[in-house]
Amino acid sequence: MSHHENIRPKSGHGASRRRFIKTAGAAAIATQFGSTFIPAHAFGKMEKPALAGIGAGGKGRTDIVQSRDAGFHVAALVDIVDATKLKTIDDKRLRSMAEVRSTFPDARYFSDYREMFSELGDKIDAVTVSTPDHHHFHASTMAMQTGKHVYCQKPLTHSIWEARMLAKAARQTGVKTQMGNQAHANDHMRRCVELIRAGIVGKVKEIHAWTNRPIWPQGFASPPPKENIPAGVNWEQWVGPAPWVDYSSKIAPFAWRGWWNYGTGALGDMACHIMDMGHWAMMPATPVSVQAEQNGATEFSPPINSKITWDFGANQYSAKDGFKYNWYDGYINAGFDREGWKLVKDGNDYNHPSEDVLDGQSFKDFGSVVIGEKGKLFFNRSRNKWLVKPSGILDGFEEPEETIHRAGGDNYGEWMDAITGKVEQGQSWFGQSGPLTEAVLLGVIAQRVPDTRLEWDADKMQIRGRADLQPLIQREYRDGWQIDV
Hints:
Blueprint: E1 5-7, H1 24-27, E2 50-54, H2 59-69, E3 73-78, H3 92-103, E4 108-110, H4 113-120, E5 126-129, H5 136-145, E6 149-153, H6 160-173, E7 177-180, H7 187-197, E8 204-211, H8 235-239, H9 265-274, H10 276-282, E9 289-295, E10 305-312, E11 323-329, E12 334-337, E13 342-345, H11 355-358, E14 368-372, E15 376-379, E16 386-389, H12 411-419, H13 430-448, E17 454-457, E18 462-463, H14 470-473
Parallel strand pairs: 2-3, 2-5, 3-4, 5-6, 6-7, 8-11
Antiparallel strand pairs: 1-16, 8-14, 9-10, 9-17, 10-11, 12-13, 14-15, 15-16, 17-18
């Protein structure tokens, strides 16, 4: 048998902040979960559920179109760009955000999703939420509180508390939910989850995952100069619940991920994709601790590159002392160029595990490796092959039966299947994706206090001995955006 072997998948903040949203149009819908009114049409089989796309440009456009292809009727669009001002908008990305309206000319258009929920009421069955991270919680919560099914982009939320609340709401309301980490629906990922649980590499000691992101500006020490807000752009709505910032094209529509207040950096953007398989396979309890090394983080912006290590306690799939999950992001020789407002890098060597971990494999070929007591499994979410080393671990290994529903790579279709009753839930529903997001966002906090071991109390949602970090776990919202859960 060769040195390694490819395996193919088988076919076939506190209570004082918990107030009702003050905006008049939204006040009627901000009810507590325990007394939520669920429209009858939110459950059971619907041939063509009515969909509202919240965030219609960029990834939002993809989510809306692919939801349509999965069988939804697009009844409403929500975005900060007034499509009637299309001809006056110069920025190509802003134009793209507006142009999606021409694809769905019969859909009602709103620039504020609170108004959409208030006006359309029970005429909407489901929503996609494809906004910047700082809006995910509000849009998704309002949807679930009115019985609407939710497909929300990753990371699920901007803060740990928000992720916990969304998972709670999904359980209490019973609506069908899905996070947009699309590869979660790939059959080869599901097969690797089954193989790891079956012990193909033995009890797991370490997992490593990495990415070349960020590819947008990060590491700046002060905001860019204020610019005039383009005609047709509702900037007040874009800022929404987050701290105020003056408009700049260097913030939106593209570079917001590099701002702590609006995005979660490369880690928040990519870890819900790349850490997903290993986290899913291990089904771990919450992390015990986390520590980060980083370069370039500032008061305003996430780091240019970082390495993060989470410690997880022992469970049935791990070594007896538990396992470590390691994350690497960014280019090693890179810096922030303020004049050009961009990242500049020297070479193409991005942050990745050591040669000992990679064991002769190219870091560009794989995005994660699971290391067990018997060997290693190398995995890339974009490929339907994986690698195990040494190949001898396959001798006598009995492949497990399929235990996870196969979605054929279509997580929009799987969401629809849950809504129509073909499956109970999509596999990346908020009960699954919420804990993953919590772990990722704990790493985001660690990036802000580097070289410090943070001990996590999951039950209390506190970092032990660090009350100063609590506002990062549960942020305070701008006036008019408080919400009761």
